[in-house]
Amino acid sequence: MTPPTVDVHAHLLLPDVEALVAGRPGLAEAKTLDALRNGPAALAVSGPMVRDRIPKLTDVTVRLAAMDAQGVDVQLVSPSPSHYHYWADEETAEKIYRHANEATAAHCAAAPERLRGLGLVPLQHPGQAVEALDDALRQGLLGVEISSHAPGRELSDPAYEPLWTRAEETGALLFLHPFGCTLDERLDQWYLSNTVGQPTENAVALSHLIFSGVLDRHPDLKVVAAHGGGYLPTHIGRSDHAWSARSDARAGCAHPPSSYLKRLYFDSLVHAPHVLRELIRAAGPDRVLLGSDFPFDMGTEDPLGALRAAQLSELDFHAVRGGNAATLLDLV
User: Fold this and answer.
1) Which whole number is the average pLDDT over 232-238?
2) Which segments constitute the Amidohydrolase-related domain (predicted)?
3) Residue 1 has pLDDT above 80, yes or no
4) Residue extents of the structural domains in the chain
């Protein structure tokens, strides 16, 4: 049986969440930081870009028509990372994740054969994370989307151990999608905040999971990294060298860093055929999933065309096109 074509990197806008946080203490400061990190030129382009895409981000009928045009059978839909709001206090954070989980589930329920969803957890409050994940699962979502860090906390922080444990126990997916880069104004021109910042954040976050031993302690954790895992998979040799050469680098994980790539999943959104081929070589053809970043401008409007451009074997093409995701998402 031919598996469906599955896009694991597609987004949803949640107006109710933004209405919820409007005027809350901390929002203005967060927006100021976002403006600092991106710069005025990027914000001037991003605002109209998002507005033009609101129908695709909110209207199920429009989404399905776009999926049909792309040849995509199933989307794994996650909230726009702009909804993380990791500045929020505990009371507000709980309202955010409950609204986000419910709204995402409702969006997907409008086309249950074609849409699967992910919720949110407030990484800034690790004590809420397990309940937020459980709430997402109760809503029928497959897991949650997380950023590369929270203020003052990396993903290696021991406070997240209960979240990893619960995700492993339930088989929940964790979609690692950064939002913002802590290099701040160094990247505030030419959209470096995204082109350099996002893959940097992916690489840092995955390195924390690897080098701290999180993946040793939780070998069945299902982590899907957006943007092909950023710089890490194509530069993993440097990590392996450090692990071999230095006692401090190998103090936290039991095996060479490159071996952990085969325990993770990666989307295919790397924007160059030779990079996709290297990602598949490094992680394995069973660990790469089709991803488009629907419908944003830093994604691809033709994810299957981008996959064909890599000139993979027939077996690997169909694995990435949908076979791997169909197994991971239990679609078959």
Assistant:
1) 97
2) 6-331
3) no
4) 6-328
